[in-house]
Amino acid sequence: MAITDWPEDQRPRERLIRQGPQSLSDAELLAVFLRVGVTGKSAVDLGRDMVGHFGSLQGLFAARLADFCGINGLGPAKYAQLQAVLELARRALAEELTSGTALSSPQAVANYLQLLFHGKAHESFVVLFLDVKNRLIEAEEMFRGTLTQASVYPREIVKAALARNAAGVILAHNHPSGEPQPSSADLLLTQTLQQALGLVDVRVLDHIVVAGRRTHSFAEHGQL
After folding, report:
1. For residue 84, what pLDDT is reported?
2. In what order do the strands lie in the sheet with 168-174?
3. What is the block-wise mean pLDDT of the chain (224 residues), using blocks of 10 residues?
4. What are phi and psi of 2, to 5 degrees?
5. Which end of the chain is more exposed for a tag (fewer CB within 10 A), N or C?
C-alpha cells in the first residue's frame, strides 16, 4: 500500500510536521527523504531495506555510490541528495562551533566530528583550531593512516596553530574498527602533542576518538 493510502495520522511526513522529527523511526525519516517507494514497496519499506542492507545509518551514510545504487529504487540522484544533506548538516554544526564556544557544547563537537569522519575507511587525524574564546577557527585533516608518534609530526601541528593564531586545539581521530577506546599509542601521542603545543602557549583542550556513533573524550576521562 502506498503511503498516500495510509491514514493521514500515520503518514511519516504529516507525523513529522505534527510531532517533530524525533517521533519518527530511521526508516520513516528516510521515507520522508525518499518521498516515493518502488513497485511493491512503500517509501518506509525502502527506507527499512536501506538501513538493513548497510547495517546502520552510519553504514548507509558511508556507502559508496556503486553500493548505494545496488538497492532497487536508488540511483545517483538520491545518492547526491543524501550527500548534500550530510554536507549541510556538517556545515551547520561548523557554524555553531564558529559562532559559539566549542567547550560549552561538547555534543555539538562530537556530532560535527562524527559527520566529519563518516565514510572514512582509513584513520584520519584532525585538529580543530580554536581562538581565545574557544570558538572554531578552522578544522583541518593533518594526517591519515595508522597513527603513531612517527606518523604525526608535532612540528606541523605547532606551525599550523601559530599560522592561525590559535589559543587552543581539540585533537581528534577516528577508529574505523568501531572501538573508541584509545590505545597506548594514542595516549603517548597526546602527551607528546600537549608538550609541543605547550611550548608556544597553545592548550590542548581535548582529544576525541570517534568510532561510528561512539566517541571517547580524553578530557572527560581525565586523560589530559
Report:
1. 92
2. 136-144, 124-130, 168-174, 203-211, 214-217
3. 66 88 89 84 88 85 88 90 87 73 70 80 89 88 67 89 95 86 90 95 94 87 88
4. -70, 150
5. N
